[in-house]
Design brief:
Largest sheet: 14 strands, antiparallel, barrel
Shape: globular
Strand order of the largest sheet: 1-2-5-6-7-10-11-12-13-14-15-16-17-18
Number of domains: 1
Distance between the termini: 47 Å
Helix content: under 10%
CATH topology: Porin
Structural class: mainly beta
Order of helices and strands: HEEEEEEEEEEEEEEEEEHE
Length: about 350
């Protein structure tokens, strides 16, 4: 859409949108957009929804929605100990995981948007008692569309100004097209849980790399277009360190994305405060916590984050404070983002025999 002429602000936003895929500030909540190898890496079952509203202060807002579900296959086997205990670990067999995710976004006056469905599979290889290496693959079906009737072109300006009835003389190959897309990645996971309530010696980490748009699908908006979607490379890491004999944990993270000429780096840090622990006799993590964090996306935004985890459920809210040259128009107002998440609890806490995979 190189010939679109709207407001200067829309031109800036359109350039940024073309250079990047849809993405979220709370990227750790959308594992299928970060690395297929993260599928099932943290929990046995995980389901979430997420919504982002961006740049409402200056133009038609960019809205992005998402939903995902993932699970490990045959995660564990159990045997009954006695009537005074829950169940004890017999053996774990969670070498495979799968997930489904759906995302949709709509941007600008032309309602330029995309909808995609992703199927992810991951397999896990143990590297130690508490760590594993996973390899993931993802296949996607993507639909892209734009409403060309709402776009303005230079040759639609006559002697008296803009005239929508003047033919734009633009030849579109399609305003609505579908293509397959493929991705892959690797990830190293580490997870250690304390043996006693209150010790707070939990340690967790994910470090990985992924490649998206391996097949570089064609973008067919214009006739004779040879434009292809650039391959995207991602490096990422997130960690959790419990401070011994306290209710506090530290959660640093970073992600680096390279796609064509675009480079995006984002670093974050969150402090989590645990205000509830489950009984040590249940053998199940049902911790509750609050988290406060801040992230920085290079040359673009500072992101403030709040997280509330209550047993199996979590709600997170973030807000982007724009720091780029676009602040002349936004006065710093980027946009809010919210997610809701459900996970099954870790069934191996406080057991003498713990599983190698959560």
């Amino acid at each position: 859409m190189k010939k679109i002429i709207l407001l200067p602000v829309i031109l800036i936003l359109g350039t940024a949108a073309k250079a990047q895929d849809l993405h979220f500030s709370q990227y750790m909540q959308t594992p299928s957009l970060v690395n297929p190898a993260l599928t099932g890496a943290s929990t046995v079952v995980r389901a979430s929804v997420i919504y982002k509203d961006q740049w409402r202060s200056i133009t038609v807002p960019y809205k992005t929605y998402g939903a995902s579900f993932e699970m490990k296959f045959k995660a564990s086997n159990w045997e009954k100990a006695d009537k005074f205990k829950t169940k004890i670990y017999k053996k774990s067999f969670s070498r495979m995981a799968g997930g489904l995710s759906f995302y949709s976004d709509k941007a600008g006056d032309g309602n330029m948007g995309s909808t995609q469905a992703n199927l992810s599979l991951a397999t896990f290889i143990p590297t130690s008692r508490f760590s594993s290496l996973s390899v993931g693959l993802q296949a996607s079906v993507v639909q892209k569309k734009v409403d060309a009737s709402k776009l303005i072109f230079p040759n639609q300006y006559g002697p008296t100004g803009y005239d929508p009835y003047i033919d734009s003389r633009e030849d579109y190959a399609s305003q609505n097209f579908i293509y397959p897309d493929f991705a892959g990645g690797i990830n190293w996971s580490y997870g250690y849980n304390e043996r006693s309530v209150g010790a707070n010696t939990e340690r967790r980490a994910n470090i990985g790399a992924s490649v998206y748009h391996i097949n570089q699908p064609k973008q067919l908006y214009l006739d004779d277009s040879k434009e292809r979607l650039n391959t995207k490379y991602i490096l990422h890491a997130d960690m959790l360190f419990g401070i011994r004999n306290s209710n506090v944990a530290l959660v640093p993270s970073f992600i680096t994305t390279i796609q064509g000429p675009s480079l995006e780096m984002m670093e974050g840090f969150m402090v989590k405060y645990y205000f509830k622990d489950d009984s040590k006799y249940t053998g199940i993590i049902k911790r509750s916590a609050m988290g406060f964090g801040v992230s920085y996306r290079n040359m673009d935004a500072v992101i403030l984050q709040f997280l509330l985890e209550y047993e199996n459920y979590a709600v997170g809210v973030s807000y982007d404070l724009n720091t780029s040259r676009l602040t002349r128009a936004t006065t710093g107002r980027g946009g809010p983002e919210i997610f809701i998440r459900f996970v099954t609890p870790n069934p191996f806490l406080y057991q003498k025999s713990r599983a190698r995979f959560n």
